[in-house]
Amino acid sequence: MCGIVGYIGDKAVDTLLIVSLERLEYRGYDSAGMATLNGGKLGIRKQVGKIQILKEILKKKPLEGQLGIAHTRWATHGEPTTENAHPHTGCKNEVALVHNGIIENYAELRDELLKEGHILRTDTDTEVIAHLVEKHLNKSLLVAVQKAVKRLEGSYALAVISIKDPDKIVVARYRSPLVIGIGKNENFVASDASALLHLTSNMIFMEDGQVGFIAKRRVKVLDREGRPVEKKVKIVKWHLLGGPQKDGYRHFMLKEIHEQPAIIRNTLQRRISQGTERIYFEHTSITEEKLPSISRVIIQACGTSWHAGLVGKYLFEKYLRLHTEVDLSSEFRYRMPVVRGDTLVMAISQSGETADTLAGIRLAKSVFLDVLSLCNTIESTIARESDGVIYAFAGSEIGVASTKAYTAELLALFLLTIHWGTLKGMLSKEEAHEMVEELKKIPYYVEEMLDNQKEVLECAERYYQSSNFLFLGRRFNYPTALEGALKLKEISYIHAEGYAAGEMKHGPLALVDEKMPVVCIAPKDSVYQKMISNIREVKARKGKVIAIATRGDEEITKLVDHTIFIPPIREEFSPILAVIPLQLFAYHVAIKRGCHVDQPRNLAKSVTVE
Length: 610
Ligand code: M6R
Fold this sequence. Notes:
This protein is an alpha/beta fold.
C-alpha cells in the first residue's frame, strides 16, 4: 500500500506530482507529503489527512524545483500523524525519501542507529532507511542507497533524493512494485503505472533487487550485484472504460456500479467472436492443448477476489468436473500444498499487486506449477509473474469497495468455464451456445436493476441504523452472501456476517431476534426450497428478512419482510445479478450513515504489504 511518485524535468514539480499522487490515493490516504530540490535546498511539506489537505498547504506554501518525490500513506508502523508522514529525512536533512513496504528488521536497525548517535524522530520503519542512506552518503546517492538496501529485510519500493547528489532520483525495489516512466527530457517513477499513464506510455517495470536512478535525460537500472541491466521499455496503453473522473456521479463506487453493464457488454463482444461463437483469451501461455490435461485447480485470492474464486469452484466442479480448491492467499502462502504436475494455480486479483496473492504465485512457481492469473490491472506484477493472464477488463477501479472488478471477474470465470468445458468435451456446442446466449442478457438485466432501485432504497432507509446484519446464501450464492456482508461492513462499518444458509442452525441462529436484519439470497434455483426452509427458521425467531428473489416469485414475498427482485437467469450466472442490489444496498446505507464511501477508514485499495 502507500503510493509513491517522483519527477525530474522542466515542469512545475509540485503541480505535476500532486496530479499523479491523486491517481494513487486509492493506495492509502492517512497522510501525504512531498519533497523537492531547488537550488541545492531541500523543501518538504507533509500533513496528516488526505492529499487535498497537502494541496491546500502547497497553495499557501508552494514547493519549487524540477525534481521531487511525493507519497500518500497507509500506516503500517506508527500512527497516521504529520510526523510519521513521508518523506522522511536523516539527521542532517541531506536526504529525503518515500517508501512503500515494511522493513521487518527495523527495530534492530533503529537500535544500531541510535547507538551510533542518530536522532530518530518518528515511529516509522521508513525513517531508519533515511538514516542508513545518510550514513553511507559520500558523493554518490546511488551507492549510498545500494549499501542501505543491503541491510533491509522485508519489502520496499523507494524513491530517494539528496542535496549532495542533486540531479537524480534514486530508486529501489524489493517485493513492492515500482515503475519508471520514460519521457522526453523528463522521467518519472511511481508505485503504479496508473499514476503515470497521463504523462507517458513508455514504462520500465523494475524487478526485485534492482536499484537505479532517473535523471532528466538518463535512466540507469542495476541488478542486485550492481551490474547494469538491459532496460525493457514496455508500451502501456490502457485506454479502457473507467478513468479517474467521477463523470457526474457523487462517488467513484456509484460510478463503478453503473459501469457494470457496459463492461460486461464490451467484454462479451471482445471475448466472443461473432459467427463462430468461439471464446478468446489472449495473453496466456497456458495453451488450448494444455487446458484439457489439467485435473486439479487451486484458486488463491483475497477479499472480494476470493469470493469470485469461490464461485469459480462451483463452476469448475459442475461443468469441468475438476477438483478445485479455493484458498485465501494469506493462508495458501504458508501451507504445504500437496501438488502434482497436473495442478494449475489460479490467482485472482483486481489490483494485481496484492502481496499475499503474489507470494502464493511465487510459492506455486517454486514447486514448478503453472500459474494462470485473472487480473484487472494490465501489466501488474501478478500479471507479469504468471505463466498466463486473463484480464477482467473492468477499467481502473478507484473505489476501495470492489464492485465492477468483482462482476468482471465473475464474467471471466463464466467465459473460461464455457471455453474450457468445450475444449474438454464436457460441454456440447449447443450447451455452450445456450450459455453464451444467456450471458448476453446480463448487461440488460443489470441495467434494469440499476434503473429501479426503489426496494433497495427502502431497505436502506429502514435498516441503516442496525448494528448487525446476516447475509445467507447457498451454493452459487453462498459467495454472494459473503460478498454482500463484506461490502456492507467495509463502507458502512456495520458488523455483518455472510454464512452458508445451511450453517445457521450450527450456531449463528442464536444471534437472530426481532432486531436482526437477515439478507437471504434466494433465487429460483436448485437450492431454492432449502433457502425457503432457512428463511422460515429465521422468521420463527422473529428476524427481519430481506430476500433477493427471482422476479415473479410470489411465494417468497408472503414469507419475508422485503423482497428485492432480480431477473430470472441460469443458476450458475445468478451471482452476477444477485450481487448488484447488495452493492447498491451497501452504498445507500453508507451514505445514510455519513461514511466516506470511496475511502473507508483503515483500508486501502491495493494491499501490497502482508
Ligand atoms: O486487488 P485484489 O483483488 O487482490 O484485492 C483483494 C482485496 O484486498 C479486495 O478485494 C478487498 O477485499 C476489497 N476492498 C473488497 O471490496
